[in-house]
Amino acid sequence: MLDKSLTPEQQEYQQLARDFTAKHIIPVASEYDRTGDFPEFILKEVKEAGINCMAVPKEYGGPGLSSLIQSIVVEEWGYGCAGFATTLAGNGLSTYPVLIAGTDEQKKSFYPYIVNGGMGAFALTEPGAGSDAGGVATVAKREGDEYVINGTKCFCTTGSYASVFIIFASTDPSLGTKGISAFIVEREREGLTIGAVEHKLGIRSSNTVEVLLKNVRVPAAHLLGQEGDGMKIAMKTLDMARPIVGAIGVGLARRAMDECIKYVKERLDINGKPLAAHQNVQFRIADMAIQVEAARQLLRRCMSLKEAGLPYSKESAMAKTFATDTAMKVSAEAVDLMGEFGYSLDSVVEKLMRDAKVMQIYEGTNQIQRMVIAGQLLR
Ligand code: COS
After folding, report:
1. Whose CA is nearest to atom 49 of ligand 1?
2. CATH superfamily of the domain spanning 120-229
């Protein structure tokens, strides 16, 4: 059922994304999960459907969709496969720093890389700077009209396939977070190589790698904003990205609930009655539905604040936390209710449970989100 509380345009995108997911993601998701292969084909399809890099404005070749529509589309991707959704949303994430701080010229040169079917990657995290994003040890030294970048990035989504990266590096380590800067770095720059590829418990079709930077030279014009703006650019980017992760979580939780409903209606107990006839089962299904809907509404409120140009950093952290905790809880509950069938590698829900875990960790752990929320409430 389409959500009738949405506007006709929003419903249109919900239908489009639902059809896209049913056609291109659901039929192949378990195979890509099993092999861990990267679904390169999905890029062409998402571009053709007009839902690639959804935040990029029309004037730069993107679809320029509202934040609410973006979350509606991503929920559908998350329903199909969180690995595919991470790849597609990760591509969008790489466009945010340029949207936030890029000049017109930077937008014109950067967006075609990604919008026309290439991929971008956001590289902030380092072996010694995960939750402590300000601990970035990669350095960018100014030499004439170039910067020379040295360091190691890790857990970089889509790094092996990206044609361009947003790299965060310190231009003045003595200034701490105020010395961090952000750069556009193309893949072909000499000295940029891909290191270890992560083997993961879930979202196995998404590509997660180490990015090694050894004397990588970029023109000074590739600096986003001013030297020292990097931490703020990163934080604003994450504000935009966290509800999108929440949307993947809502989609995943909804899928777990749907799979579970199908099962309890068909599966008979020892007296020949469907499991769904038991009040205990009904209550557990009802709790799933309450959590999915609450997560979705928290997300939509965050998106309305953002669209209205109001502060939404706290709500972004809330939506991400609640939606991804819901994804974890509902998928684990689905495995529990489906018993051995749910635990089997042939079931859909065991994959959902594996995929859900990382959402509580990436784009800022849910503990970091609670720090952001409490920080605003207690200041
Ligand atoms: N929007 C704009 N600016 C922000 C901001 C936001 N949402 N949040 C913080 N800032 C600014 C602060 O105002 C501060 O600027 P000033 O020094 O000018 O005052 C600067 O950024 C540093 O902020 P803060 O002092 O709060 O930074 P901390 O080092 O204490 O770190 C946390 C704050 C923990 C919240 C941050 O490191 C974080 O989000 N960590 C998680 C990182 C993450 O999500 N990684 C996932 C990577 S995605 S692949």
Report:
1. 363
2. Butyryl-CoA Dehydrogenase, subunit A, domain 2 (2.40.110.10)
Nearest CA owner, ligand 1 atom 40: 131
**What are the φ and ψ backbone dihedral angles of 139, each rounded to 5 degrees?**
-120, 150
b/e string for 158-172 if b means 16 or more Cβ within 10 A? bbebbebbbbbbbbb
Indicate if 120-229 has the same CATH topology as 8-115.
no
Q: Which two tokens stand for residue 60?
A: 């730069």
Catalytic residue among 76, 126, 333, 363: 363
Q: What is the DSSP string of 88-116?
A: HHHHHHTTHHHHHH--HHHHHHHHHHHHT
For domain 8-115, the CATH architecture is: Orthogonal Bundle (1.10)
| Cα 132 to ligand 1 centre (Å) | 9
Tens-place pLDDT, residues 256-287: 999 999 999 999 999 999 999 999 999 999 99
Q: List pocket residues of ligand 1, CB cut-off 6 Å.
A: 122, 124-125, 131-134, 177-178, 231-232, 235-236, 238-239, 313, 363-364, 368, 371-372
pTM assigned to the model = 0.97
Please give the Cα distance from 25 to 100 (Å, whole number): 31
363 is annotated as an active-site residue: yes
Distance 235 CA to ligand 1 centre (A): 5
Closest atom of ligand 1 to 362 CA is: 46
Q: CATH: 3.90.1150.10, 1.10.730.10, 1.20.140.10, 2.40.160.20. Which one for 232-378?
A: 1.20.140.10
Mean of pLDDT over the chain: 97
Structure token digits, residue 327:
């994804």
Give 362 Cα–ligand 1 centroid separation in angstroms. Answer: 15
pLDDT digits (tens, 9 = 90+) for 311-363: 999 999 999 999 999 999 999 999 999 999 999 998 999 999 999 999 999 99
Q: Could you tell me the CA-to-CA distances from 78 to 86, 112, 123, 262, 305 in Å, in that order?
A: 8, 26, 23, 19, 23
Taking the domains of the chain in order of start, what are their residue ranges?
8-115, 120-229, 232-378
- Give me the pLDDT at residue 115, please: 85
* 8-state DSSP, 129: B
- Ligand 1 centroid from CA 95, angstroms: 19
